Amino acid sequence: MIIKIGKSYKYISESPRGKEFLSCRDVLWILVFCGFAINYMLRINMNLAIVAMIIPRAKAAAVAQCSAVYIVSPDHSRNKSTDLSLFSTSSIVPNSSVEQLFDWDEYDQGLALGAYYWLHWLSQLPGGLLARRYGTKTVFGLGNFVVAILGLSIPFVTHYHLYALVTVRVLQGLISGVMWPAMHDMTAKWIPQNERSKFVSAYMGSSIGAAITYPLCALIINLFNWEAAFYITSLLAIIWYGFWYFLVFDSPSIHPRISQAEQKYILEHTAGTVQTSSREKVPWKEILLSGPLWITAIGHWGGAWGFLTFMTQAPSYFNFVHGWNLKATGLFSGLPHILRMIVSYTYSIFSDWLLRTNRMSLKNVRKLANLVTSGGGAILTLGLAFSGCQPTLAIFFMMTGTAVNGAVSAGTLANLVDLSPNFASVLLGLSGLLTGISGFISPLVVGILTNHKQTVEQWRLVFIIATANLAISAIVYTLWGTSDVQPWNESKKPDPDEEELSKLKVKINDDPRDTDNLKINNFNCKELLSCRQTLWLLVFTGCIINYMLKFSLNLVIVAMVVPRAKSPTTSQCTSGNLSSFTPNVTIENPLLSQNISYTDRFNWTEYEQGMVLGAFFWTYWATHVLGGLLAQHYGTKLIFGGANFIACIIVVLIPVTIKYHLYAFLALRVLQGAVMGVVLPSMNVMTAKWIPPTERSKFVSAYMGGTVGTSLTYLICAIIIHYFNWETAFYTMSVAGTIWYCFWLYCAYDSPQQHPRISKAELKYILENTPPIVKNSKEQPIPWRHILTSGPFWIAVFSHWGATWGFYTLLTQSPTYFSFIHGWDINMTGLITGAPHIPLMIFSYTFAIFCDWLLRNNKMTRTGVRKLAMFIATILQACFIVGLSLSGCHSNFAVQTIESWRIVFLITAANLTCSGILYLIWGTGEEQPWNNLYANDDEQGEELQKLKQEPTETTEKCDTVDEKKLKKEKEANGLK
Known about the structure:
Layout: E1 2-5, E2 8-11, H1 24-53, H2 61-70, H3 106-114, H4 124-134, H5 136-160, H6 162-176, H7 179-190, H8 196-200, H9 205-223, H10 226-247, H11 260-270, H12 284-288, H13 291-320, H14 326-356, H15 362-385, H16 391-403, H17 412-419, H18 424-435, H19 438-450, H20 456-480, H21 496-506, H22 512-516, H23 531-560, H24 568-575, H25 578-581, H26 606-614, H27 616-620, H28 624-634, H29 636-660, H30 662-676, H31 679-690, H32 696-700, H33 705-723, H34 726-747, H35 760-769, H36 784-788, H37 791-821, H38 826-834, H39 837-856, H40 862-885, H41 899-922, H42 938-949, H43 953-958, H44 961-975
Antiparallel strand pairs: 1-2
């Protein structure tokens, strides 16, 4: 888009953003996301809390049926981890006595769970009307706030009478019903059409709310009591309301802090479809007779049925069918909703890209999303129905079935806004009348089918019914769905926003401060990914592969060695926490046991196991410097990719050499460490050539792909070993690495100048914003003396030492801690040891974006940013490590809980603390003088000069009128 600024014109991004860290639409997305998360926390906290509120009864027939299936040979019985606190089938938490619990039968429990939905559907339509009259800010915000106040009263009314609780839950459902339709009214006013899929993904904050609520409530109940679960969720809602009240406004035209550029952009791109008058007459007859509306509602029905079935019934399903306790039920009921949010956000970005680049019509984008939601959900729900007593399959189908529901944000949910932006809230209200009914019909069906018959066969019927609903919705919407704006959406009355837009179009912005509020992009391409983004993905997945190859042995060794008698630590910890660790029912469950024969294992001592794990690092450190030198001479593409590929070949040979002799295996691990030591240092050469300084923090977060690789490795290896054998784990890692290497060969290049498919605009942007790089040749040697005597360099090295010590201590030893100290089996060891690396990756990426913003807007010096990051990575980690060393035998917080290991953690904390203090005092992020001792890169300078002489179409748009006049004068002078 070209706009006039003063006497000149500038080309700006289609979505302007100022120097502020977040635009007003970003802030709105975050608050809407958190609002829906809070809404679901208040809605479903009862689903899990009720497990701890009632007196436990004898386990259902399904548990006995599944446990009979799980029984294996007596030779393996001593390997069963039936004393795990995570999977103990006891429902009573240590802080609740039987006198504090309620003797409710299945009918009473159904009343408590289903009461929320009795009137929830009825307030959907009034919610849309109230939002049009009073504004979304009031309706959505007060809806959460009032429900939170009612949530605070639940513990009191529950102790008074069951029907008092039912009354409060009915009121909560009635008030909460207004929130979803109300939000559509604000979405139509704030969000342009080509951004709606991505914005509506904020509605999937409900998934994060569900994911957080289950494990959070399980933890709170375990530490305190079930009443605290309601108090804490309500308190979080009240805090959210404070932010919502002060930061959110019903439309951009009344926002007091929005930049004029962003306001103009929003009003321009929503003009003609949105009228903001609350007195606009609703065309009830046309709406009620609208076929596209009811087709969309039917399309939304199946997704809602499937999702609500999973959400409300997952705790009961895991508890009654698979016999899992409160902690495991909370964990596995919440995890799928994290995936749902991720799918929602990524798929919505993909859908917006399809629209923005005209790859697909709006109608087909919505149909594709609904097909993923309902059609894909139907297939996965059917798989769950026939998963029987296999908990691993049940978890897989439950997770993926919930995850694909995230595409609804780009499907029927967004389609309601497409049909009528002016009456979007009314449409969602009417649609909610239909789909909300599934909220209480689905639990009713489950109650009828499973009442006193908690068997696998009855739950199969539950999931088959959900499959039928999903399939019908997919077929109906795919055949007859549409996204065209309906004729009755238009209004002849003038719109205040149209008048505001006309004022903005006439006004000339002469204020230079507003110029700073526009993010000027030097290139604008229609590709889904720029070359730098493609490189980020390849580096990210390359680091995943690197860590999968590097650390797969950490978990596999648990299945390779003959298990020994439990250590004294295990006895010490379990004996001190019998109420929490001892199950009431012994269930032989394949998720909790190792069904691996001893004939495939090795009788290695602890010393030999230590040699096997440590051999990789004997030479790993020695090739780091070599990796940087090789990358400068031969290029990162060859070294980074080639090292990963060679490591794949080595890993394929591991099963053969390990059966030949232990020392042959050690030699192979030593070789593997030497090869893989060159990988990460080589990457910095490519980063320096491709990435401008203001983007490097975010790009370097790709190196944290290693954390995702670690997480995936532990989980995938555990599943592979369980269903196949430990050899297959190595083969799978190698195949995955080979596939990645093929993509790397085709898509990665050592510098932007060598890339055959990069746009000229992006190439110029990189070259102009990237500092020149010294060309490594015989005439330009590496300044070894300056480097080796550089104080800042060694300060950075010593600081990194502590962070590395802490990370590797937890990374390499956690599988052994869980298996041999806490007595956990291969599957749970893989799951729990891999889980922390997912939040590590998320934190790395978000903190990197924050650091780049600090640098880009001069909020902090480069040195200050680096010191802040090191403080978090070392000092804060040291605090947590100290807490870990003092956590005792509490399995909720400790990876290992024994006095002898306390010393290990204290040593780690000391390393972290010393490293952090060292860098905070003497560290610097400034470029060193010896970096530019020699001439600049001639290749880069020549390439940039060519681009300056041959401007692209995009850069010509960026030229100001004054610059064009200057060119004409120079041409005239040249002719003279």
